[in-house]
Amino acid sequence: MVVVTKALTLADFHEAGALIAEMGQWDVAQCGVHGLPSEDVISAYYSDDAASLLEKCTSPSTGMYLARAGSVALGCVGYVSHGDVAEIIKLFVRPEERGKGVGARLLATALDAIEQSRCQKVNLVTVSFMTNAITLYRQFGFQECEPFEPAPKGLEEATRYMERVIK
Description:
The chain is α+β, with helices and mostly antiparallel strands. The chain has a single domain, classed as Aminopeptidase (3-Layer(aba) Sandwich). The protein contains five helices and seven strands. Strands 1-2-3-4-5-7-6 form a seven-stranded mixed sheet, sandwiched between helices. Helix 4 links the parallel strand 4 and strand 5. Helix 1 packs across helix 3. It holds the Pfam family Acetyltransf_1.
């Protein structure tokens, strides 16, 4: 059985960090497959260690969640808030667990927490080759929007920005 819990301890954030490092390696490999430069991907999106994730994701307006089956971490998602805008970060499900609803459970959990805050909008950044993720985001009401931050050099065309207005 898959259980989604909020990351609270340094050990939880070590697990999240390991998943995020795995996500970074997958992202770099996919950039190569799609002919995109990957030099800046790790430093732009995957450079947080467990301590910095703990600091970034434990204030009242942030969160990190882990999906586990028993003691095995299957995926993670985080969010950070800036005023009345939240941003989904680090949604990742291990490849062998994809298509089983783990990503949807993680995203729903993060969105529930965001909706309980004073945020009016949720943003996220993805890339065009993450088609399954884009489909999931659309199922949760996200739509493409104008860029709200710069993309890493060489990834401008592949970077997708999405938002969802909270009612």
